[in-house]
Amino acid sequence: MKKNLISILVIILSINIYSMYETKYTSLEIDNQKILFPVQTSIYLENLLYLGTVESYYELAVAYQNLGFENISQNYIKKYEDNKGNFELIGDYYLEKLNYTKALEYYEKYADSKSQFEKDRVYLKIKDIIIENNLHSMNIENYNINNLSQLKLLINDENLFYNYYYDNTWSSSDKNEIANFLSNYNLSNKSLLKIIFYNISNKYQKLENERQKIASIYDKNGYFSYFNYAKLQDINIELRDIYEEIYYYDYIGDKVQYNRIISNLINQYIFSKDYDKLNILYKITNNNKILYNLALNNEIYFINLIEYFHSIYGLSNRDLVLNLINNYNIKFPNSKKKYLVDKILIFYIDDYLEKYELSNKILQKTYDNEIAYIYLDSIRNLEFLSQEDADKIIEKNDYIDNQSKSIVTEEEIEKIEENHNEDNNIVIETSYNYEDSLVDIITKFNVSENIIELYKSFLIEKNRSNEYLPFLESLCNKDHYISYCLKYGISLNKISNKDLILYYFFNEKYENLIQYKSELSDEIYDFMAEKGYFEKKNGNKNEKINIDLTTNFSEIDNFQYFYFNNNKKYITEKLFNKVIVKDFKNDAEIYFLAKYYLDISDYKKAKEEIDLIVDKYASEKNIVDLYNEIEKKLNNDKPIENFDFKKYEYNFEYNYN
Predict the structure, then answer these.
(1) Are 337 and 303 in contact (CB under 8 A)?
(2) 133: Cα within 13 Å, side-chain hemisphere
(3) Segment holding 153, helix H or strand E
(4) What torsion do the CA atoms of 150, 151, 157, 161 make, to the nearest 10 degrees?
(5) Backbone torsions φ then ψ of 234, nearest 5 degrees
(6) Is the full-model pTM beyond 0.70?
(7) In angstroms, rounded to a whole number, what is the distance separating the alpha carbons of residues 36 and 367?
(8) Is the pLDDT score of 560 beyond 70?
(9) Rounded to an integer, what distance in angstroms lies between the CA atom of residue 593 and that of residue 74?
């Protein structure tokens, strides 16, 4: 499976996202990539009790409900409501308890204070609950919404939106409202919505839609496209913020106004030490004065400065880059981010031993294909140099042995033997093996094609090219083997359909997936349906998440659904083979092993795995549900008693007042 490892920059940007979940979730790793996994129940409850926030009251109510402590749960949901908690969440709480009357009561309370759009959304939710649970005593007519509201609620499914629009009749005022509504969405990749919008919108609504296409405040092309449309339509635009002003004066070429704004902002932000805004300004303008000031006060910006000059000047101005690196090391001597600077420093080192030591150090922190290439190149050169040194020593030793056969004094013989022993010791001190290191890198990491090619070249050089294909076949990651076989017309009958599906999917060879239609996972099938290869499946209202197990947690909006939906299979045979051989497995790996064994009907092994963690996660309903499901399978699908939550009671000081 071709997946680039997450760059450190993405991890830094993910910190804020991760902090929202750190009370309940912790970062673990599977296959060298980060995922979120629940913290243990005892730690989770301690965290919530310590926080004492409105949000924590709700989490405590849910947690104690899952643990079976009804009275404690009710106390916390009351505290949550008394502290102006979200009525919709309270409704969700009662819905989970199957108390539909209470649930609908709180949903209505929530809807009463909201906008019409939000009210309609909640009413549609209530209607679905009534229909799905056959609640005949509830009057569904109380929650009817008009056609226009119904249409707006379909915005996330353009096919449904398109069909509903053309199945109904709309007045001129309706069409104007629909156009205003659509103008606030980026329709670039929504061809059906775009058809509707361009048929009913005026030039001002189209201009607003151009603005929605601006990806971020760093999207210069997006701003210029927006200004250009206004110019073509002869519309006077209102500049909405300072960044829009900067781009506008850049667009019309007014350097005086542009430089005046930039200069004023630089001085203002430097004086107020507002380094975040300075960083935004730098990314927009690429003004080096900003970067210098940032580097003096912030480590991340200092690293950005080094990266900037490395990319601009490189080895042509090595003294400047090395001087910056030296200053960084003085200012941040014990930083955990030092390896980011080391990844630049390594390009300015000539000595192979130093390159080897530094690249090895970097790879201990993070995998990088370019660094791996340098690491292997250093080993190869050191191996070559070591062999040269060894040859010289052998020549010298032969010479000494020949000389010792001549008539010499006893003192000279002792000196010759002493030197001979010292020279022999040198060979032992320097030993490097390029082949072993190369194989180790390939088997340990998700390497790029150029690293694989190094091994191919090595085998050809050693007249061992016949070993290459069996080596590729032996790797857990079959991508390189499949790629090689396809390139040279070699049969793929040794590869499982599951591995072929993943290879074609992640290499965007979607046409090749059509033949495996019946074997595709729900996620891949739905993705293919979105692309137009298959018809969409009916009756599945669950959210579709087209991402695999090891996706970085910052990209997951609803990770709880993603990791614990029992209808999905997340662990592949390839990943299983990597995890099963580990001496120590973290709780996330154990959880997924249990699911994998359940999926392949090895219930005994599934039970062995889930038993290792279930006691620690008694409040995590999905883990307990997996435990119960495995128990049920072991008992030949006979009903079993629910998991005994209460046996895992924790001794906390409860304070409900």
Answers:
(1) yes
(2) 18
(3) none
(4) 140
(5) 55, 50
(6) no
(7) 20
(8) no
(9) 36
Distance of CA 290 to the CA centre of its chain: 31
DSSP state letters, 558-609: SHHHHHH-TT-----HHHHHHHHT-SS--HHHHHHHHHHHHHTT-HHHHHHH
Helix locations, 332-368, DSSP H: 338-345, 352-365
CB 106 within 8 A of CB 94: yes
Q: 479-488 vs 449-461: helix axis angle to the nearest 10?
A: 70
Each as own residue / partner, the long-range contacts of residues 387-394 (CB below 8 Å, 24 or more positions apart, any chain) are: 389/426, 389/427, 389/430, 390/427, 393/423, 393/424, 393/426, 393/427
Question: 543 near 561, Cβ under 8 Å?
Answer: yes
Per the model's pLDDT, the better-predicted residue between 150 and 568 turns out to be 150
Around Cβ 113, how many Cβ atoms within 10 Å?
Answer: 9
Amino acid at 559: F
**Residues 614, 340: Cα–Cα separation, whole Å:** 39
Half-sphere exposure of 287 (CA within 13 A, CB side): 20
The single-letter code of the amino acid at 361 is K
Query: How many Cα atoms within 13 Å fall on the side-chain side of residue 577?
Result: 11
CA distances from 636 to 382, 601, 639 (A): 62, 12, 9
> Does residue 4 sit in helix, strand or coil?
coil
> Cβ of 77: how many Cβ atoms within 10 Å?
23
C-beta of residue 209 within 8 angstroms of C-beta of residue 187: yes
pLDDT, tens only, 245-298: 999 999 999 999 998 998 888 888 877 777 678 778 888 887 766 766 666 667
Which of 648, 611, 647, 646 is closest to 628 using CA atoms? 611
Residue 413 or residue 495, greater confidence: 495
CB 8 within 8 A of CB 366: yes
d(CA 541, CA 526): 12
Domain ranges in the chain are 1-30+33-54+549-657, 436-548
| Single-letter amino acid code for the residue at 375 | Y
Q: How many CA atoms lie within 13 A of 398 on its CB side?
A: 6
pLDDT per residue as tens digits for the range 9-59: 222 223 333 333 455 667 676 666 666 677 777 777 777 787 778 888 998
Task: Give the C-alpha distances (Å, rounded to integers) separating 225 from 210, 232, 238, 251, 368.
Answer: 7, 11, 15, 10, 37
CA distance 462 to 117: 70
CA-based nearest residue to 591, from 567, 616, 619, 573: 616
For 537, counting Cβ atoms within 10 Å of its Cβ (0-12 exposed, 13-18 middle, 19+ buried), the class is exposed
Alpha helices for 366-433 (secondary structure H): 369-404, 410-429
Question: In whole angstroms, what is the distance from residue 570 CA to residue 229 CA?
Answer: 46
